[in-house]
Amino acid sequence: QHDKLALPVGTTLDRFIMRKQEDFPYATGELSQLLRDIALAAKIVNREINRSGLIDIAGAYGNRNVQGEDQQKLDVIANIRFIRALRNGGEVCTIISEEDEEVIQTGNVQGKYIVAIDPLDGSSNIDVNVSIGTIFSIYRRVSPTGAEGTMADCLQSGTHQVAAGYVIYGSSTMMVYTTGNGVNGFTYEPSLGEFFLSHPNIQSPKSGNVYSVNEGSSVSFSPGMAAYVAYCKEQGYSARYIGSLVADFHRNLLKGGIYIYPSTQKSPKGKLRLMYECNPLAFIVEQAGGKASNGYMRTMEIEPLDMHDRCPLFIGSVDLVSQAEEFMAREL
Ligand code: AHG
Ligand code: MN
Ligand code: MN
Ligand code: MN
């Protein structure tokens, strides 16, 4: 049943944030402002994405990022837009971005928050009009205000997140986020420039029959991983792999399913990054009744050693992730 504060579908994001802020007696509005700053940047990036075929911002930027990936122009544009919105919003002191090797100090030394962000997820899909996304994770700083954020502020485990969310630039553009009291989805109406509550209190199905794995890497799957994928086929599950984590995650969140990016020969620790891909989606999926692990331990309890740490990701319906973990445990 809906919680007592269930708001009618159609509430704007702004009104929802303000109303939910009342749930936090000590909230002073900074986190609310920060969420609005992110939504503003999402509207701007959404517009750039929708025009990318028309103005010269498609294709490669001609630079390699710290991940060793060829940055796409929209990777760089999205990075600039989110960093600028967070800097101008004033609430964030330090940013971790997939596209920047070092932390970004915003100059807001009074800012109480740290943001880890994947400004554009699914870059390989940008030029072929397939859904892409943005993923963000928000922490309170542990160091006193009045100075730049420290590495201790930045390398907190996922259980310390105060909020996490994603934007999916798909057939419609949506923002889905949690502040630890459930998960809510908002759909963007471009003609009004507003996000409207469209998916209140998202509960992910306990099980499902969809598995999302890049089987092109199956030659280097571990025995447990190979056995689990064979099991999915025996069960007659559907294979769905879009190549944009946000899109695969969002479909499985709503319909049930499991997404796995395992350890592979090319990426022994998995390809996905703990701070700005695995942890935010793990927070969301747990808040929606699902599960996230590296195949062995809860994703949000992994202690980060570096801001660009990678880890395997098993995420989605609780029964499916638990089943996959059983296969992974057998090989130990
Ligand atoms: P990003 O574009 O932010 O670097 O992330 C891409 C990720 C994820 O979105 C997707 O699921 C995965 O890379 C696809 O990797 P493979 O092409 O190796 O399957
Ligand atoms: Mn990338
Ligand atoms: Mn990504
Ligand atoms: Mn990215």
UniProtKB/TrEMBL annotation:
This is Fructose-1,6-bisphosphatase class 1. Belongs to the FBPase class 1 family. SUPFAM superfamilies: Carbohydrate phosphatase. Pathway: Carbohydrate biosynthesis. The keyword Magnesium applies. It comes from the Bacteria. The keyword Glycoprotein does not apply. Mg(2+) 2 binds at D118, D121, E277. InterPro entries: FBPase_C_dom, FBPase_class-1, FBPase_N, FBPtase. It is an enzyme of class 3 (hydrolase).
